[in-house]
Amino acid sequence: MKCVLRDTLLDRDDSVFDYGCGHGDDIRHLQGLGFNCDGWDPVHRPDVPRRPADAVNLGYVLNVIEDLQERAETLRDAWQLCRKVLVVAARISVGDGGEFGAEYGDGVLTRLGTFQKLYTQAKLREYLQGVLETEPAPNGFSSRSRCLHRSTLLGVARPTCWPCLPRRHCL
Asked: Cα(37)–Cα(22) distance, rounded to whole angstroms?
Protein backbone atom coordinates (compact mmCIF):
# COMPACT_ATOMS: atom_id res chain seq x y z
CA MET A 1 0.00 0.00 0.00
CA LYS A 2 2.95 2.32 0.53
CA CYS A 3 3.58 2.52 -3.22
CA VAL A 4 -0.12 3.03 -3.97
CA LEU A 5 -0.25 5.95 -1.53
CA ARG A 6 3.04 7.45 -2.64
CA ASP A 7 1.95 7.46 -6.26
CA THR A 8 -1.49 8.85 -5.29
CA LEU A 9 -3.47 6.02 -6.85
CA LEU A 10 -6.28 6.45 -4.31
CA ASP A 11 -8.45 9.47 -3.66
CA ARG A 12 -9.21 10.36 -0.03
CA ASP A 13 -12.87 9.52 -0.59
CA ASP A 14 -12.05 5.99 -1.80
CA SER A 15 -12.85 3.24 0.68
CA VAL A 16 -10.22 0.56 1.28
CA PHE A 17 -10.58 -3.00 2.53
CA ASP A 18 -7.45 -4.87 3.56
CA TYR A 19 -8.12 -8.55 2.83
CA GLY A 20 -5.71 -10.54 5.02
CA CYS A 21 -4.74 -7.54 7.15
CA GLY A 22 -2.74 -9.37 9.80
CA HIS A 23 -2.59 -7.25 12.95
CA GLY A 24 -4.04 -4.24 11.08
CA ASP A 25 -0.99 -1.99 10.71
CA ASP A 26 -2.04 -0.82 7.22
CA ILE A 27 -5.60 -0.23 8.44
CA ARG A 28 -4.42 2.05 11.24
CA HIS A 29 -2.05 3.89 8.91
CA LEU A 30 -4.73 4.45 6.25
CA GLN A 31 -7.29 5.55 8.84
CA GLY A 32 -4.71 7.98 10.21
CA LEU A 33 -4.44 9.45 6.72
CA GLY A 34 -8.20 9.93 6.59
CA PHE A 35 -9.22 6.91 4.53
CA ASN A 36 -12.36 4.91 5.30
CA CYS A 37 -10.56 1.60 5.83
CA ASP A 38 -11.25 -1.73 7.46
CA GLY A 39 -9.85 -5.22 7.13
CA TRP A 40 -10.29 -8.90 7.75
CA ASP A 41 -7.78 -11.60 8.64
CA PRO A 42 -8.54 -15.28 9.23
CA VAL A 43 -6.30 -15.38 12.32
CA HIS A 44 -6.16 -11.87 13.80
CA ARG A 45 -9.55 -10.36 12.77
CA PRO A 46 -11.81 -13.29 11.87
CA ASP A 47 -15.01 -11.67 13.20
CA VAL A 48 -14.82 -8.57 10.98
CA PRO A 49 -17.24 -8.93 8.07
CA ARG A 50 -15.66 -8.89 4.64
CA ARG A 51 -17.24 -5.97 2.81
CA PRO A 52 -17.04 -4.26 -0.57
CA ALA A 53 -14.73 -1.27 -1.01
CA ASP A 54 -13.43 0.90 -3.82
CA ALA A 55 -9.96 -0.57 -3.39
CA VAL A 56 -9.18 -3.98 -1.93
CA ASN A 57 -5.65 -4.70 -0.79
CA LEU A 58 -4.46 -8.29 -1.09
CA GLY A 59 -0.94 -7.64 0.11
CA TYR A 60 1.36 -10.58 0.76
CA VAL A 61 -1.58 -12.95 1.12
CA LEU A 62 -1.51 -15.17 -1.96
CA ASN A 63 2.12 -16.10 -1.35
CA VAL A 64 1.40 -17.65 2.08
CA ILE A 65 -1.52 -19.88 1.04
CA GLU A 66 -0.20 -23.35 0.23
CA ASP A 67 -3.48 -24.90 -0.91
CA LEU A 68 -4.02 -24.09 -4.61
CA GLN A 69 -7.82 -24.09 -4.39
CA GLU A 70 -7.85 -21.88 -1.29
CA ARG A 71 -5.41 -19.47 -2.98
CA ALA A 72 -7.68 -19.13 -6.03
CA GLU A 73 -10.82 -18.77 -3.85
CA THR A 74 -9.13 -16.04 -1.82
CA LEU A 75 -8.25 -14.12 -4.97
CA ARG A 76 -11.80 -14.49 -6.33
CA ASP A 77 -13.31 -13.43 -3.00
CA ALA A 78 -11.14 -10.29 -2.86
CA TRP A 79 -12.04 -9.52 -6.51
CA GLN A 80 -15.74 -9.77 -5.70
CA LEU A 81 -15.33 -7.17 -2.95
CA CYS A 82 -13.56 -4.52 -5.00
CA ARG A 83 -15.56 -1.83 -6.77
CA LYS A 84 -12.65 -0.15 -8.56
CA VAL A 85 -9.29 -1.81 -8.10
CA LEU A 86 -7.74 -4.86 -6.51
CA VAL A 87 -4.14 -4.29 -5.42
CA VAL A 88 -2.08 -7.49 -5.23
CA ALA A 89 1.41 -7.65 -3.77
CA ALA A 90 3.45 -10.83 -3.41
CA ARG A 91 6.98 -11.96 -2.63
CA ILE A 92 9.19 -12.15 -5.69
CA SER A 93 11.32 -15.03 -6.77
CA VAL A 94 15.04 -14.36 -6.49
CA GLY A 95 17.27 -17.08 -7.86
CA ASP A 96 15.97 -20.61 -7.34
CA GLY A 97 14.26 -19.94 -4.00
CA GLY A 98 16.93 -21.95 -2.19
CA GLU A 99 17.61 -19.09 0.16
CA PHE A 100 14.17 -19.72 1.66
CA GLY A 101 14.43 -23.44 2.32
CA ALA A 102 13.10 -26.71 1.00
CA GLU A 103 10.70 -27.00 -1.93
CA TYR A 104 7.16 -27.69 -0.83
CA GLY A 105 4.18 -27.98 -3.21
CA ASP A 106 4.46 -25.10 -5.65
CA GLY A 107 6.49 -23.01 -3.20
CA VAL A 108 9.08 -23.35 -0.48
CA LEU A 109 9.17 -23.82 3.28
CA THR A 110 11.11 -21.13 5.09
CA ARG A 111 13.57 -21.83 7.86
CA LEU A 112 10.70 -21.03 10.25
CA GLY A 113 8.57 -23.72 8.64
CA THR A 114 6.14 -21.33 6.94
CA PHE A 115 5.03 -21.66 3.32
CA GLN A 116 5.98 -19.08 0.67
CA LYS A 117 4.87 -19.11 -2.96
CA LEU A 118 7.40 -16.99 -4.85
CA TYR A 119 6.28 -15.20 -8.01
CA THR A 120 7.87 -13.27 -10.80
CA GLN A 121 5.85 -10.32 -12.00
CA ALA A 122 5.03 -12.22 -15.21
CA LYS A 123 3.91 -15.32 -13.28
CA LEU A 124 1.74 -13.28 -10.92
CA ARG A 125 0.16 -11.45 -13.87
CA GLU A 126 -0.49 -14.82 -15.56
CA TYR A 127 -2.00 -16.21 -12.34
CA LEU A 128 -4.30 -13.20 -11.85
CA GLN A 129 -5.42 -13.36 -15.47
CA GLY A 130 -6.11 -17.09 -15.29
CA VAL A 131 -8.08 -17.05 -12.03
CA LEU A 132 -9.98 -13.79 -12.56
CA GLU A 133 -10.39 -14.20 -16.32
CA THR A 134 -9.51 -10.56 -16.81
CA GLU A 135 -6.38 -8.69 -17.86
CA PRO A 136 -4.31 -7.11 -15.07
CA ALA A 137 -3.69 -3.43 -15.71
CA PRO A 138 -1.09 -2.84 -18.42
CA ASN A 139 2.57 -2.73 -17.41
CA GLY A 140 1.95 -3.60 -13.79
CA PHE A 141 2.84 -0.80 -11.41
CA SER A 142 4.14 2.58 -12.51
CA SER A 143 7.74 2.43 -13.71
CA ARG A 144 8.67 5.20 -11.28
CA SER A 145 7.89 2.90 -8.36
CA ARG A 146 10.88 1.82 -6.30
CA CYS A 147 8.89 -0.88 -4.51
CA LEU A 148 9.26 -3.56 -7.14
CA HIS A 149 12.71 -4.64 -6.00
CA ARG A 150 11.15 -6.21 -2.90
CA SER A 151 7.80 -7.34 -4.16
CA THR A 152 5.64 -7.81 -7.19
CA LEU A 153 2.72 -5.41 -7.25
CA LEU A 154 -0.07 -5.57 -9.78
CA GLY A 155 -3.49 -4.07 -9.99
CA VAL A 156 -6.63 -5.39 -11.55
CA ALA A 157 -9.30 -2.80 -12.32
CA ARG A 158 -12.97 -3.28 -12.88
CA PRO A 159 -13.69 -2.64 -16.59
CA THR A 160 -15.74 0.46 -15.77
CA CYS A 161 -12.65 2.02 -14.17
CA TRP A 162 -10.21 1.58 -17.06
CA PRO A 163 -10.62 5.14 -18.41
CA CYS A 164 -9.46 6.68 -15.11
CA LEU A 165 -6.38 4.50 -14.67
CA PRO A 166 -3.85 5.77 -17.22
CA ARG A 167 -4.07 9.42 -16.17
CA ARG A 168 -3.24 8.43 -12.59
CA HIS A 169 -0.05 6.47 -13.40
CA CYS A 170 -1.82 3.42 -12.23
CA LEU A 171 -1.69 -0.20 -11.70
From this structure: 14
Task: With residue 131 as reference, give the H or E element that holds it.
Answer: helix 121-132
Q: How confident is the model at residue 64 (pLDDT cuts 50, 70, 90)?
A: very high
Q: 125 to each of 34, 36, 136, how far by Cα in Å?
A: 31, 28, 6
Q: What is the pTM of this model?
A: 0.79
Task: Write the DSSP string, 21-47.
Answer: -TTSHHHHHHHHTT-EEEEEBTTTBTT
- CA distance linking residue 38 with residue 155, whole number of Å: 19
- Rounded to whole angstroms, the maximal C-alpha distance in the chain is 45
pLDDT in tens, 90-121: 887 765 545 667 888 888 888 888 898 988 87
Please give the Cα distance from 9 to 85 (Å, whole number).
10
